[in-house]
Amino acid sequence: MIPVNEPLLGKREEELVLECLRTGWISSAGKFIEDFEQCWAAYCGKRYGIAVSNGTAALQLAFACIGLKPGDEVILPTFTIISCALAVIYNGDGNISSILDLGCGTGNHALPLFGTRLRNYWG
């Protein structure tokens, strides 16, 4: 198996995890979550930021925020994780109308071919 992503954890990450364990703040609240939300908001130039429990929840929230409606076209690469498609379905559209597959491995190289089509959507 070829790993898609391998975490790179060092001494500092170990220290921070141990701090969470020692203080009892290992989920849903605590100093690190509040710090992250504030830093993320500042980075984005916004008043508030929000942390969610995982990438699947983040995708579902992102689709909810853009107002995805049934029938909207969603283009997904074939080399992805199932949570990308599930976020579309979860937000009310059981039909992913376009899956990018041009036989080039990840499909990411094909994005320029969709340039005109995407410009029509977003100006």
Structural account:
The chain is mainly alpha-helical. It has a domain at about 70-120. It has 5 helices and 2 strands; from the N terminus they run αααβαβα. The protein has a two-stranded parallel ribbon with strand order 1-2. Helix 4 links the parallel strand 1 (about 75) and strand 2 (about 100). The radius of gyration is 19 Å and the shape is extended. The chain starts with 10 loop residues before the first helix and ends with a helix.
- State which percent range the strand residues make up: under 5%
Structural class: mainly alpha
The level of helicity is 40-55%
Biggest sheet record: 2 strands, parallel
Total helices: the number is 5
- Average of pLDDT: 79
Basic shape: extended
Calculate the terminal CA-CA distance, rounded to whole Å.
41 Å
User: Which sequence of SSEs, written as H and E, runs from N to C?
Assistant: HHHEHEH
Order of strands, widest sheet: 1-2
Radius of gyration: 19 Å
Low-confidence runs (pLDDT<50, min 5 residues)?
none
Q: Compute the number of strand runs.
A: 2
What is shown here, in short?
The protein has 123 residues and is mainly α. It is built from five helices and two strands. It has a two-stranded parallel ribbon with strand order 1-2.
